[in-house]
Every structure is written in C-alpha cells, then in structure tokens.
Design goal:
three-stranded antiparallel β-sheet, 2 helices, alpha+beta
Amino acid sequence: VFNQCLVKCHRSEETTATLMALQASGVVWCGGSQWAGEPAIRISCCSWATTLDDVTFAVDAFKEARRLAVSKIDNT
C-alpha cells in the first residue's frame, strides 16, 4: 500500500503549471518534487479518514488544475 505518489504530465511545463493551479485553488494541497530531473507532483493519497467522496473531490480538482494549466500553456 502506497500513501505517497509522484505524478507528472506529458510536458514538464504542464506539471509545474498544474501544481501551481492546484496550490492556488485551495481545494487540495500537493507538494512539488523531482524525479529523474523532471518536475513532479507529490501526493499523499490515503488516510484512515479519507472517504470516496474525498477522492472524487481531489480527482476533480486535479482535472480542473490540469485543464487550466494546459489552457494557459497553449495560449502563450
């Protein structure tokens, strides 16, 4: 069972922008990290108090943050 995970997007700038959008949203908190010299998002993904609704809420926040990040990158 893992409770810490690293994720990244297809492009480094997407990963960084997604993390920034997540942190700015105030909905969920994730820290930044690096893996093999590339930026990554560090997620604590479980707790005894985590519910399915919590997970759904967090996934929706990630999807919105990535949408905002890609939109920002593609429009620059």
